[in-house]
Amino acid sequence: MDIHKITDSLNNAQHQAVTAPSQAVLVLAGAGSGKTRVLVHRIAWQICQHNVSPHSILAVTFTNKAAKEMRGRIEQLINVPTQNLWIGTFHGIAHRLLRRHAAQAHLPDTFQVMDSSDQLRVIKRILNTLNMDDKTYPPREMQWYINAQKDEGIRAKDIIPYDDPNELQRLQVYESYEALCHRSGLVDFAELLLRAYELLRDNAELLEHYQQRFRHVHVDEFQDTNTIQYAWLRLLTKDKDNLFIVGDDDQSIYGWRGAKIANMFRFQQQYPNHQVIKLEQNYRSTSNILKAANVVIAKNQGRMSKELWTTTGDGELISVYTAFNEQDEAHFVIERIRAWIKSGNKRSETAILYRSNAQSRQFEERLMATGIPYRVYGGLRFFDRAEIKNALAYLRLLSNRHDDASFERVVNTPTRGIGAKAIDDLRQIAREHNVSLWTAATRLNSRAVAGFLQLIHSLSEQAEGLELCDKVELVIKTSGLMDFHQKDKDKGEEKIENLAELVNAAKLFYFDVGNEENLSELESFLTHASLESAEQQGDEAEDCVQLMTLHSAKGLEFNLVFLVGMEEGLFPSGQSVDDVARLEEERRLCYVGITRARAQLYLTYAESRRLYGRETYPRPSRFLRDIPEELVQDVRMQTRVRTTYSTTREEPKVRNAYPSTAPKPVPSSSIARGAYATGQKVSHIKFGAGVVVSCAGEGDKASVIVNFRNVGVKQLMLAYAKLDVL
User: Fold this and answer.
1) HSE toward the beta carbon, residue 462, CA cutoff 13 A
2) CA angle (460 as vertex; 392, 406 as ends), nearest 5
3) Pairing of strands 609-611, 614-616
4) One of 19, 36, 439, 638 is an active-site residue; which one?
5) Can you identify the CATH homologous superfamily of domain 383-526?
6) Does residue 709 have an active-site annotation?
7) pLDDT score of 640
8) Angstrom distance (rounded) from CA 606 to CA 617
9) Longest C-alpha distance within the chain, in Å?
10) pLDDT recorded at residue 343
11) Which of 81, 342, 403, 669 measures 20 to 30 Å from 19, CA to CA?
């Protein structure tokens, strides 16, 4: 084969990495610098230039998609079948080893791999067998504990509880779990890695066999490896110096799930003959975007220094928008997206990135109101999330006791001792007497079920006469949902944020007193939630605007990116500001977000935001303040909305004084009769006097967001609101 086909398309640094001698190599690959290209061409170079057998090559990555792409690109490049190449994820390769050597791994040949939900069910069984209160020891917390121990290579027998009663209880669950899995031939995901490591560690001949076989070991996304993954790699390569790793310490953003950025530094200590090659030329973003990313990440201490650069030119300045509040922020972003689409651009080339999942609701509602297809990447839409559905189910029972679906959903959520048999009995009574589950529950002799009925009665009485948002907050707290979801080790914080955002949604909800259906305010809100949930997300193949958390955005890129909620306490998160390690990970997350943008980047923040159930007046994010003024332009937007049409004018301005960027009120003398604009003083028959803070939509969907003096912020449809201009 012509070797030039492998090397001619590479830049100097990529060429150096691909053709490096067979020794320990660290390729420090900046965002958009072609790391996958380097891995693919490195393997092709070894096969074609040095006659390395594919049988002796191991390549490990973190997703099946990445492994499949790597295999396909190698085959295309050298036109050689790659079935002898071991290319796969850590879990996939560990599973392959265990299947080949099940007996030596002390596993039956027919062992079964459990997914996360299967594992959780097993843990629930164990807690029940041990008569342990699952409120004190939530199953998900036990699952997190067990997996965390395994990720560190720790078995139950290695744990010393030191008379800590909680640790003793967790240890008892871990021991029982190990025993049950051993009896049943079950293996969870964390066990795959730990068992594969122990297989090689405890079998010297087998270890030597694989050390001799895999003479060339390649690892992608090395910064995301955890303790047991790195220990496994060390076993295979520690005496050979044949580990070729590609990673970027500046993109290490998964510390919360066990990734150890320290592995990057351990590699350099434990492979003293290693070579470091930096990939700094970026093929994705404009120079202004890269300069901003470089400045933000440079504040982190102890990082492996590198600086991204490009030959594609400066590009547009980074746009910064200061919103009055989160509604105005969503309005601005969606109006810019509308303009982008009208200019002939694809929706799928646009992404809205946020730090917390709870932020998605405002953008989802605005996108639906304007008829723009969207997709929540790597997650559920707001009203589809389990914690939101749980809260809505309680609210539906307040409105209608005979809603069977809602009854079943929350009768034992949080757990209150109502087991599967009791629920089966309820279903049987309901079928035999043709009544609802609620009516059946009144006929069942069960103290736990009676307690649930009393809870709903009590909530209903307490909610009488309360504002809608106060009803929602009462239900979330009194039902136990707040405490229940807070105990989720993996996503507890996120779920609490989402529940707080549901309270915000209720506060902003506009209730049409004269609705033709004669619905109550609660019924109207529940109908609104159901209709939004029923709206179908765009299909993966459809041209949709992409919404996602910053963590989900890693590895992706878009022509137009909105990085929203750039405020202290939100991004960086409030939990990180007093913890140096967590704050540095937040800064790396910002670096990842900025470098997702190819051509245009908008950064937005709000002067006020209702966050976690209370009004806040945050400062702009320190990450935003880090960016030099010469790279940024302030964007101001004036919007006039009538019931039949709207016009939007955006005025960019290079920033010269930070951060006076808020839209200015429009004098009422300049407003045509019947029109509304940002800053307009208005009056409503129910809510009283207020100020318009945002406008959106056209025709029947035209709406305004008004900050009322007495009741706070409300979103109103202009077709029904009957606002008077003051």
Assistant:
1) 17
2) 30
3) antiparallel
4) 36
5) PCRA; domain 4 (1.10.486.10)
6) no
7) 31
8) 8
9) 88
10) 94
11) 81
What are the residue ranges spanned by the domains of the chain? 4-100+194-279, 112-184, 318-381+537-725, 383-526
554 is an active site residue: no
- Average pLDDT for residues 458-462, to the nearest whole number? 93
Residue pair 400/439 in contact (Cβ under 8 Å)? The answer is no
645: three-class secondary structure by DSSP: coil
Q: 236 and 200 in contact (C-beta within 8 Å)?
A: yes
Which residues are 562's β-sheet partners?
352, 602
Given this model, what pLDDT does residue 656 score?
38
Considering the four listed CATH numbers 3.10.450.50, 3.90.190.20, 1.10.10.160, 2.60.40.1120, the one that applies to the domain covering 112-184 is 1.10.10.160
Whether 157 is catalytic: no
With contact defined as beta carbons under 8 Å apart, do 304 and 616 qualify? Answer: no
Residue spans of alpha helices (H) in 286-403: 287-297, 326-342, 360-370, 386-399
* Residue 60 and residue 93 in contact, taking contact as beta carbons nearer than 8 Å: yes
By DSSP bridging, strand 724-725 and strand 681-684 are antiparallel
pLDDT score of 654 more than 70? no
Report whether 666 contacts 298 (CB < 8 A): no
Radius of gyration of the chain (CA): 29
Residue among 71, 303, 596, 655 flagged as catalytic? 596
- Does residue 220 have an active-site annotation? yes
Q: Exactly one of 143, 149, 169, 251 is catalytic; name it.
A: 251
Question: Is residue 220 within 8 Å of 59, Cβ to Cβ?
Answer: yes
Of 188, 191, 220, 326, the active-site residue reads: 220
- Give the model's confidence band at 648: pLDDT under 50 very low, under 70 low, under 90 confident, else very high: very low
Of 151, 221, 250, 607, which one is the catalytic site residue?
221
**HEC profile for 169-226?**
HHHHHHHHHHHHHHHHCEECHHHHHHHHHHHHHCCHHHHHHHHHHCCEEEECCHHHCC
CATH of domain 318-381+537-725: 3.40.50.300
Q: In what helix (H) or strand (E) does residue 37 lie, and over which residues does it extend?
A: helix 35-49
Residue 134 annotated as catalytic: no
pLDDT of residue 333 exceeding 60, the answer is yes
Is residue 169 among the annotated active site residues? no
Answer yes or no: is pLDDT of 114 > 90. Answer: no
> Is the alpha carbon torsion for 351, 352, 358, 361 positive or negative?
negative
For residues 427 and 425, what is the distance between their CA atoms, to the nearest angstrom?
5
195 Cβ contact list (under 8 Å, min separation 6): 94, 98, 105, 107, 187
Helices (H), 540-629: 550-553, 580-594, 622-626
Average pLDDT over every residue of 659-678: 41
- Joined together, the tokens standing for residue 663 give 């839209």
Residue in the structure block whose two tokens are 């843990």? 123
Q: Is the peptide bond before 165 cis (omega within 30 degrees of 0)?
A: no
Contact 56, 213 (CB under 8 A): yes
Average pLDDT, the chain: 86
**DSSP-based three-state secondary structure for 722:** coil
Q: Do domains 4-100+194-279 and 112-184 have the same CATH topology?
A: no
Block residue for tokens 């078995």 = 155
- The predicted model gives 596-623 an average pLDDT of 90
Least confident of 195-199, 277-281, 387-391: 387-391
Q: Could you tell me the pLDDT band of residue 332, with boundaries at 50, 70 and 90?
A: very high
**Phi and psi dihedrals of 426, rounded to 5?**
-60, -45
- Amino acid (1-letter code) at residue 375: R
- Would the pLDDT of 669 be above 50? no
Provide the CATH number for the domain formed by 4-100+194-279 in this structure.
3.40.50.300
